[in-house]
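Q: For a teaching handout, I want to show students what a protein-ligand complex looks like in token form. Below are the inputs, and the small molecule is uracil. Please produce the holo structure.
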Amino acid sequence: MENRTEQMKKIKDEIVAAKDSPLYDFRVKNKYFPVIGEGSHNAKIMFIGEAPGKNEAETGRPFCGASGRVLGELLASIGIDRKEVYITNIVKDRPPENRDPLPNEIEFYAPFLDLQIEIIKPEIIATLGRFSMAYIMKKFGLESELKSISAIHGKVFIAQTSYGSVKIIPLYHPAVAVYGTNKEILKKDFKVLKEFIK
Ligand code: URA
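A: Here is the structure, written as tokens, with uracil included.
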């Protein structure tokens, strides 16, 4: 069996070469990179955002712009180093003009996310925003509990996976706190995460 880093590299190679992706032409035209994910391959916590923005597509790193600064601050507020967790997105290439990901884009990239979950085997999956919340809750049989993010953010759902049980915690996307006053809500929800580590 290959190690986790080798398995992750295969996913990267496949995405880089994925000419059938609905976002492939846009990536190549702009000389963008796909954003696979970053962090520890042995992480207990996996964060799943929406899709790369411009900064991310230019560097190949998830959450490295304004939302990333907020995410870093939230992690620091509960004493977690970014390197200890794994951070990725449901969609691996930047959609034009930062629009919401389309259903066919989510459908195309979700199998790669599924593989990443199988490789990392996180104990906790924290979704960032409504797209990854909806995908992950449906994937793990929690469709009947899926409500609007304002109703279920910060709640803990338990699901069974091929490797054991996982806690799923829907969180608001850090972008909601870049300008507004929503950071306090996010900080409170991050405290929930803290209870499950260490
Ligand atoms: N927003 C996301 O959802 N993901 C990123 O990587 C950056 C911004």
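A: Two things your students might notice: The beta strands are 38-39, 45-49, 86-89, 124-128, 157-161, 164-171. The chain has a mean pLDDT of 95.
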